[in-house]
UniProtKB/TrEMBL annotation:
PANTHER family linked to this entry: APOSPORY-ASSOCIATED PROTEIN C-RELATED, GLUCOSE-6-PHOSPHATE 1-EPIMERASE
A Gene Ontology biological process term: carbohydrate metabolic process
Top-level taxon: Eukaryota
Identification of the protein by name: Glucose-6-phosphate 1-epimerase
Length: 283
């Protein structure tokens, strides 16, 4: 029961049998079990030794999303998806430890020396019987505006990604299609399926809620607050087979429904806090 820590991971358990495992490396949630089933996908060929970001679970993306921008220089020098997913975080405190729910707060170390911005980055992970909530807290502790992008890159486990249905994106929602070179389009309001490679950023999703019907009688509801955008990604064989640490046919076993603030940089004035929350419920 409760919270167990070793030098690499923290495990949360509820009395109902739900559990979650979190690597201090990247504050990456690598397992979430609810109703006796694993709900997150981690590639069996992923490194777990801190040599590379973990391929699966819920990597934390910060302070940039995707490839680095051309400016400002200290952002241009960053690696894809930023450094939070490759930093070693620490357990700051146990927020709640009750039979029905367990919650911990992790703190990120200071940024690399090349990234001279003053902020604090914390991550609160809360587990209950059917729900996993993960909230990012970014506070600008400097005296100037701080700009960033952030996203929670969940890999939700599904039995067969070609059979899932993704609902909840309203007609008229603008999306950027990265498969089509970043083309902007308006969503037609239909149900999205993975019948080819999908890599899209839906911008300012009005419902802040997306449902995944896994085509096998279960699924997920992903709700978000603070975050306004949602990236939906499945590489299919087209790109999945080229990802070095992706297990064979791994792309058939997950879909990413990633709440974030990524359509542009978020500007956080000095002294202010940004909270981005994702709540994933088993349907
Ligand atoms: O969130 C979708 C995405 O940005 C895709 O474009 C794809 O490259 C994916 O993330 C994985 O990125 P990674 O750096 O983990 O290989």
């Amino acid at each position: 029961m409760g919270v167990t820590q070793n030098d690499k991971t923290i495990v949360l358990n509820t009395a109902s049998g739900a559990s979650a495992e979190v690597y201090l490396y990247g504050a990456t949630v690598t397992s979430w079990k609810s109703g006796g089933k694993e709900r997150l996908f981690v590639s069996s060929t992923s490194a777990l030794d801190g040599s590379k970001p973990i391929r699966g679970g819920i990597p934390v993306v910060f302070p940039i999303f995707g490839p680095p921008p051309s400016s400002p220089p200290e952002y241009a020098a960053l690696s894809q998806h930023g450094f939070a997913r490759t930093q070693t975080w620490t357990l700051d405190k146990i927020v709640m430890d009750r039979p029905e729910g367990v919650s911990i707060r992790l703190a990120a170390p200071p940024p690399p020396s090349s990234f001279q911005h003053k902020y604090t980055l914390a991550y609160v992970i809360t587990l209950t019987e059917h729900q996993l909530s993960t909230d990012i807290h970014i506070t600008n502790t400097g005296s100037e505006d701080f700009i960033f992008q952030t996203l929670l890159h969940n890999y939700l486990a599904v039995p067969d990604s070609t059979k899932i249905k993704i609902k909840g994106i309203a007609e008229g929602t603008t999306y950027k299609d990265k498969v089509l070179g970043g083309k902007l389009d308006k969503w037609d309001g239909s149900t999205l399926t993975i019948d080819r490679e999908v890599d899209r950023v839906y911008q300012k999703v009005p419902s802040q809620e997306i449902e995944v019907d896994d085509g096998a009688g279960s699924g997920f509801k992903v709700r978000f607050r603070g975050f306004e955008d949602c990236t939906i990604w499945n590489p299919t064989e087209t790109t999945g087979s080229k990802i070095a640490d992706m297990e064979d046919k791994g792309w058939e076993k997950y879909v990413c429904i990633e709440p974030g603030y990524v359509r542009e940089f978020k500007t956080l004035p000095a002294g202010e806090e940004f909270i981005g929350a994702q709540v994933i419920t088993v349907a």
